[in-house]
Design goal:
Length: 485
């Protein structure tokens, strides 16, 4: 079986012509349109971050207002022109790039903060605000954006909401399904549906905004977001820990929840291979520990009183060392140490991608099973003689992720993409996850990569309802076609 779905261009979609272009030129200014066969910029919109998926769009529209998005979508719907909405294009499942010649609708030019209420913590912004800028704005106002990701310098607020990204502090601040208060969304027919002024509580019937969170732009385009920002923690700390096995990682997690309780804000893990890849990639950056271990854990605390938090963290760490849960640990002394510790975690994906490319899986499992999928895949690749020094095609197969959320990322760092590797990985990985009743996408979404695989995690009736919803909102199927739905 083919690992990745083969698809044909849908002939119901119109091929863009000069009349269409004229229309777009009549409603948009010059800096809201990019169209040229050769420009490098065009290529950057067509290709995903992993350089694994590449579309052939010749037209990028970058409207500056919700009204313009509405006009564009109405025209595309009336004329059956297919559209891919795009935020920062940092997604990992081929959801944000075209498959064929779909028009790319970039939210990049919608980048204004709309308002902030320091009393309730409600933050409102355009969809195209870069997450880093949302963090900066809120920090200046003594708050934080309730989500952080390694791609924060490029990803956009609307994009992370569209894909329901989880991130590094999910354990503390929870899901976007809880933090998003309201959305402004343009439907394929151009209608604007907005509850962006919604208050914290609103129990008047169906919560329609939830449908757009995680829909990956398949039923509407998010143009504005209202979200609850948390108060800025006055004290931040982090420790980097070496551990012998995954059982101990789980024991330490239970201990951290019990002893660090309200100040625990991240509990992340990396296996030996993740760190080996990252050491090679971050050449020269001093590693926080003296020895190599089978597992590493990064624990972050965020609270309001540095002395109190440090005392708690110190006594947690020394009792963990005394009870042999921890082989070695390093606690940040200052902000520079704290940032360095996080660099080791945040660089794993980029490191794995730097040897040629990577196959990437993002899964939810019960904690007791969380690491087993990585062992099973590594064994399978090893038995086929595919992992090791050159000329073997696989450099390493590594696991890391969010222990607190039961979410593992499995990266197979390869020197080249081959059908043999693909066929060993899929459907094996999905069947394994289904056998453990896990989810084939914990936080990265489904996109093009997992098209046709929803049934491993969703029942027939759930998939039927999803298709009904898609058809209801987007009867012509113009929004983000060829993807999971
Ligand atoms: C992360 O947790 O670092 C992100 O989900 C990206 C990745 O999978 O590496
Ligand atoms: Zn993640």
């Amino acid at each position: 079986a083919e690992a990745y779905p083969k698809v044909k261009r849908n002939s119901n979609f119109k091929v863009l012509d000069s009349a269409d272009l004229k229309y777009f030129q009549s409603i948009l200014s010059e800096d809201e349109i990019i169209e040229s066969q050769s420009s490098e910029e065009l290529a950057s919109f067509n290709q995903d971050w992993m350089k694994k998926y590449r579309g052939q769009s010749n037209l990028i529209l970058l409207p500056k207002s919700t009204d313009k998005v509405s006009k564009i979508l109405k025209y595309c719907n009336d004329n059956k022109l297919a559209v891919v909405p795009q935020g920062g294009n940092t997604d990992l499942v081929g959801a944000s790039v075209p498959v064929f010649d779909e028009i790319i609708l970039s939210l990049r030019n919608m980048n204004k903060v709309r308002g902030f209420d320091p009393v309730s913590g409600t933050f409102k912004c355009d969809a195209g605000v870069i997450m880093r800028d949302a963090h900066q704005f809120l920090r200046d106002n003594d708050h934080i954006f309730p989500l952080d990701l390694p791609s924060r310098n490029n990803c956009q607020v609307g994009g992370v909401v569209s894909t329901n990204a989880g991130g590094l502090n999910f354990l503390r601040y929870g899901s976007l399904h809880g933090n998003v208060l309201g959305l402004e969304v343009v439907l394929p027919n151009g209608e604007i549906i907005s509850n962006i002024d919604a208050l914290r509580k609103d129990n008047t019937g169906y919560d329609l905004k939830q449908l757009f969170i995680g829909a990956e732009g398949t039923i509407g385009v998010i143009t504005g977001v209202s979200i609850v920002a948390a108060a800025k923690p006055k004290a931040l700390n982090a420790v980097f820990i070496g551990i012998n096995n995954f059982d101990t990682v789980q024991k330490l997690f239970v201990k951290a929840k019990g002893e660090l309780s309200e100040i625990l804000s991240a509990f992340e893990f990396m296996d030996r291979g993740s760190i080996e890849c990252t050491i090679e990639y971050l050449k020269g950056l001093p590693f926080p520990l003296k020895n190599q271990h089978d597992f590493y854990v990064l624990i972050e605390t965020s609270g309001s009183n540095k002395k109190h938090d440090d005392e708690k963290l110190n006594s947690f760490l020394s009792s963990a060392i005394d009870s042999k849960l921890v082989s070695e640990g390093m606690m940040a002394k200052d902000k520079a140490d704290y940032d360095r510790i996080w660099t080791w975690r945040k660089s794993v994906a980029t490191a794995c991608n730097s040897y040629g490319g990577m196959y990437k899986y993002d899964m939810s499992l019960q904690l007791k099973d969380l690491y087993s999928v990585c062992d099973a895949v590594t064994k399978r690749l090893d038995e086929a003689g595919l992992i090791g020094d050159e000329p073997k095609p696989v450099f390493k197969s590594v696991g890391y992720g969010h222990v607190g959320d039961g979410n593992i990322h499995l990266n197979i760092a390869v020197r080249e993409f081959t059908k043999q590797i693909e066929n060993l990985l899929e459907p094996f990985v999905y069947e394994y996850i289904a056998s453990k009743k896990g989810s084939i996408s914990a936080e990265h979404g489904v996109g093009f990569h997992k098209k046709g695989h929803l049934h491993y995690s969703r029942s027939d009736i759930e998939i039927r309802f999803m298709k009904d919803i898609k058809h209801h909102y987007d009867p012509n199927g113009i929004l983000n076609p060829y993807k999971y739905i």
